[in-house]
Amino acid sequence: MLNVLTELAQHVAKGLRRMPKTLSSMYFYDDIGSRLFQQIMDLPEYYPTRTEFAIFREHGAAIVAALSPADGGEFALVELGAGDGAKTKLLLRELLAAGPGFTYAPVDISAGAMTGLVAALQQELPALRVEPVVEDYATALDQLRTWPGSKAVLFLGSNIGNFGPAERLDFLRQLAAPLAPADRLLVGFDLQKDPRRIRAAYDDAQGVTAAFNLNLLTRLNRELGADFDLAYWQHYTDYSPLNGAVRSFLVSTRAQKVRVATLEETFDFAAWEVIHTENSYKFTMPQIEALATEAGLRVVASFTDAAGDFADVVLAV
């Protein structure tokens, strides 16, 4: 826990000294934040989770065929950020039904989440071979270089959209580096659509997304001894069709000072000054193909829902 707090404290110190002030969305997910995000995924406005489920239900067999080795040999299905594995279970059932020998290797930094996932899989899919990896992405990617046999890597849920353009390209190159020609990479991309629908997905009428964003300040109060008064902060989101970026902010509604005890530092906020907390980029298929090419990858197959809201794209080096 000390290392995590030290990392969080260092991040907050760096982010709140910047102009504009910035905090990473990776720190949204404490226990309360994780529960709030589960609620977000069930909201009527939040389409990404439902649409990726629909893709897996409709195209599961074809996706499995695109991910499996051509020679029918053994391979590992490696999922970065496995979480509760709800969507992936659809693919796992297809793989088990198809019969090829494979091992599922979920990767997550949370040991607690991994324990729950493995227990659920043992109960629901007892024939499945599971080798959990409790590591961050960078460490897991290094381990992939020495992974024996073929592999298919999953990065689902439009998480690629949380990276800025330069970081996104660098991350895809890191994913590509340990892949052999026979290996595959499946990435989920949220597609550009009606701008009003996109914005509503990140600013729902019930205020759950606002609570999710504001919970970051509650976490800093609890873990770093900060004194953010949530009565003087609000959630704001915008979406630009020009670059496909949803941006989320925490807005200071008055001039105020915030003390962070762990840092022994006080930060000044002007009225209506913002803390930028999240980006979520949306894509077109030509953009995805161009990004893949720049990262040293090619599109093998792509699968979309009926409305064209979301794409799961199979890539290879």
TrEMBL record:
<dbReference type="GO" id="GO:0052706">
    <property type="term" value="F:L-histidine N(alpha)-methyltransferase activity"/>
</dbReference>
<dbReference type="InterPro" id="IPR051128">
    <property type="entry name" value="EgtD_Methyltrsf_superfamily"/>
</dbReference>
<feature type="domain" description="Histidine-specific methyltransferase SAM-dependent">
    <location>
        <begin position="9"/>
        <end position="315"/>
    </location>
</feature>
<dbReference type="InterPro" id="IPR017804">
    <property type="entry name" value="MeTrfase_EgtD-like"/>
</dbReference>
<dbReference type="GO" id="GO:0032259">
    <property type="term" value="P:methylation"/>
</dbReference>
<dbReference type="InterPro" id="IPR029063">
    <property type="entry name" value="SAM-dependent_MTases_sf"/>
</dbReference>
<protein>
    <submittedName>
        <fullName>L-histidine N(Alpha)-methyltransferase</fullName>
        <ecNumber>2.1.1.44</ecNumber>
    </submittedName>
</protein>
<keyword id="KW-0489">Methyltransferase</keyword>
<dbReference type="InterPro" id="IPR019257">
    <property type="entry name" value="MeTrfase_dom"/>
</dbReference>
<dbReference type="InterPro" id="IPR035094">
    <property type="entry name" value="EgtD"/>
</dbReference>
<dbReference type="Pfam" id="PF10017">
    <property type="entry name" value="Methyltransf_33"/>
</dbReference>
<keyword id="KW-0808">Transferase</keyword>
